[in-house]
TrEMBL record:
This is Heme haloperoxidase family profile domain-containing protein. Residues 103-363 form the Heme haloperoxidase family profile domain. The keyword Oxidoreductase applies. The lineage of its organism: Eukaryota, Fungi, Dikarya, Basidiomycota, Ustilaginomycotina. It comes from Tilletiaria anomala (strain ATCC 24038 / CBS 436.72 / UBC 951). Its cofactor is heme b. Belongs to the chloroperoxidase family.
Length: 484
């Protein structure tokens, strides 16, 4: 698979002197994050600006008074835009085109040996051969695909992809699977340093990347779910359509970020009420499942020209159905066939400049918590439904933060997330690997610096704290890692 021009351009911007860094990045010394770069990327600059505004009492997301530039009859106006707002840029047909029809990139359903998993976005990238059709990717291929097709900024796609390789994949050849277990055959020829000689589990493993209260998958330990956290649940999907008023209008922005975050809150409460072993894990729960709702609104959305030639981003029912692999028959019945996730042939990506980054994730969490403060909790049910208790933020951080301080400052929230993980990593990795050095070095180079930059935005001190997440998690009966 070749690396795309869009990716190369972004990677080039990201490196101040990229010439030496690039070839190296496919090898073990992989280090894409410009740790020495003094200058902010446009997204980092936008995040700093937003941090200052929120600290001064401003809204996390500005409410738009005037949406007349958007669709006529807009009943569900999108008020939540990414830091680099796609509607601030001119629509550019050629730049925003993605090949979805050539022999190389047309939709092909996975064969029996191809791996697919819980994330519709990754599944469809494999179905369109932007990720390898077999469902096993390298870190580099995933960064390229997510950046090229969905417009995710390189530093964020790097952090997400590296995390998958370290916790669900193989750090020696940087491969990971978008679903279940696999045998690595990459650069290192299947050499593994996972403890116990285990195969890498892929991102389907529960409570690592994949978490409870996800968009339209049931919880792994939920009674009746049969440990199936991978396949779409059609009833949950119908409820999502209902939240959108069953609106079938083509071209209408029904599934906005606003609506999807409301949906996240509903799903969270459902899990508390239905799953005695509900557990909102720090990464897979708190960060990933919340961000995932936002990802749908941002990445499944089609883009077109508004009346004034500016980009108009919208997610209507046909694009939503395709993204989730659901077919609507003529009589209105819905059918989900696993592995059918796709982008419709005429779909267009967001503007090249409107990249989506880590700061957007932090603001998404903040906004979700303003809708429902529970959404910021790490914690779970105590073995019965409706017994949720969260880890106390004050306890977790040695009194450094409480929920109120996190809600008032995006940099503080970034620091909380960053420090929580950094302090937990060595012990978690110690359980996973015989030798932790390679995994730790991959994270130190490509995961931690991204968070650190957000955590110290606007001179935020970001003092370290010893979160001891493992011990805190052990209190919750549903916190065990699951892979069938
Ligand atoms: C909203 O914007 C449109 C076009 O920019 C303008 O014509 C209209 O007067 C504005 N309406 C309000 C209420 O500000
Ligand atoms: C949406 O459609 C479902 C059937 O799939 C129906 O039960 C429900 O009442 C409808 N809701 C709205 C708001 O139209
Ligand atoms: C997406 O938008 C383009 C215009 O950019 C339009 O031509 C196309 O029909 C739309 N496709 C879908 C699947 O909504």
């Amino acid at each position: 698979m070749k690396l795309s021009p869009a990716f190369l351009a972004t990677a080039f911007l990201a490196f101040t002197s990229s010439a030496v860094a690039f070839p190296e990045y496919l090898a073990r010394g992989f280090n894409i994050y410009p740790s020495s770069a003094a200058t902010d990327t446009p997204l980092q600059a936008a995040f700093r600006k937003k941090v200052a505004e929120v600290k001064a009492g401003g809204d996390v997301f500005e409410r738009r008074a005037n949406t007349t530039r958007r669709n006529e009859n807009e009943e569900y106006p999108r008020t939540i835009f990414s830091l680099l707002n796609p509607e601030a840029f001119d629509y550019n047909e050629r730049d925003q085109y993605i090949d979805l029809t050539s022999d190389q990139h047309k939709f092909i359903a996975p064969g029996p040996r191809d791996i697919r998993g819980p994330c519709p976005g990754l599944n469809l990238l494999a179905n369109h051969n932007y990720l390898p059709r077999n469902g096993v990717t390298t870190v580099a291929q995933a960064i390229d695909a997510i950046n090229r097709v969905f417009g995710v900024e390189v530093e964020l796609s790097t952090a997400l992809s590296v995390y998958a390789a370290v916790f669900n994949g193989n750090v020696l050849d940087t491969t990971w699977s978008i679903g279940g277990p696999y045998t690595p055959t990459g650069i290192a020829g299947g050499v593994l340093d996972l403890a116990g000689g285990a195969e890498p589990q892929g991102i389907s493993a529960h409570n690592v990347y994949e978490g409870d209260a996800s968009i339209v998958r049931e919880d792994y330990y939920q009674p009746g779910a049969n440990n199936d956290n991978v396949h779409l649940n059609i009833q949950l999907f119908k409820e999502l359509l209902e939240l959108g008023g069953n609106d079938t209008t083509v071209g209408k922005d029904v599934y906005t970020s606003d609506l999807m975050l409301k949906h996240k809150s509903i799903r969270w409460e459902q899990s508390v009420q239905r799953n005695p072993l509900f557990y909102n894990s720090p990464f897979g729960g708190l960060i990933v499942t919340t961000a995932a709702e936002r990802f749908v609104a941002e990445f499944a959305a089609n883009n077109t020209a508004g009346p004034d030639g500016k980009n108009f981003i919208y997610l209507d029912e046909p694009n939503l159905l395709a993204f989730f692999g659901v077919t609507k028959h003529a009589d209105g019945t819905l059918e989900y066939k696993p592995g059918q996730e796709r982008l419709l042939p005429s779909w267009h990506r967001r503007p090249l400049a409107a990249q989506f980054g880590l700061g957007d994730i932090v603001l998404t969490l903040l906004n979700a918590a303003k809708t429902n403060p529970h959404l910021l909790s790490i914690g779970g049910n105590a073995g019965k439904v409706n017994t949720f208790t969260g880890v106390d933020v004050g306890d977790l951080t040695g009194g450094l933060y409480n929920t109120q301080t996190l809600l008032a400052d995006p940099a503080a929230l970034s620091c909380y997330l960053y420090q929580g993980f950094e302090s937990a990593l060595p012990s978690v990795l110690g359980n996973l690997y015989k030798v932790v050095d390679d995994a730790l070095s991959l994270l130190n180079k490509n995961y931690n610096p991204v968070w650190h930059k957000a955590a110290t935005a606007n001179g935020n001190p970001c003092k370290s704290y010893q979160a001891n997440l493992e011990k805190q998690s052990a209190k919750y009966p549903g916190s065990k890692v699951g892979n069938k």
